[in-house]
Design goal:
Layout (H helix, E strand, L loop, with lengths): L4 H30 L9 H47 L1
């Protein structure tokens, strides 16, 4: 497919129109919150972020534990079946 220089310039201009203000706003937000912590405490926004992060980890831990438990049960059932099969074959 042939690239058209006019369309490429329009695309670059659109990307820059969105990207530059976002980067500028992020820089301003970072500079604003850098000095507002005072004596080393955390801002409420940081505490909310860490709380949400902890909630996500805990919510992911529940299905992980269920899967791990079912895997352990399946392993021990399989080994119990093998032991029962070998003991019945020996008799």
């Amino acid at each position: 497919m042939k690239a058209y220089p006019g369309k490429l310039m329009v695309l670059k201009r659109r990307v820059m129109t969105v990207l530059v203000p976002c980067l500028f706003a992020a820089t301003l937000a970072s500079a604003d919150t850098a000095g507002s912590t005072g004596a080393g405490g955390m801002s409420p926004l940081t505490m909310i972020f860490l709380g949400l992060l902890a909630a996500i980890i805990l919510l992911q831990l529940i299905p992980a534990m269920v899967l791990f438990g079912s895997m352990i049960v399946a392993v021990f059932k399989r080994s119990a079946k093998k032991v029962a099969a070998t003991t019945s074959d020996e008799v």
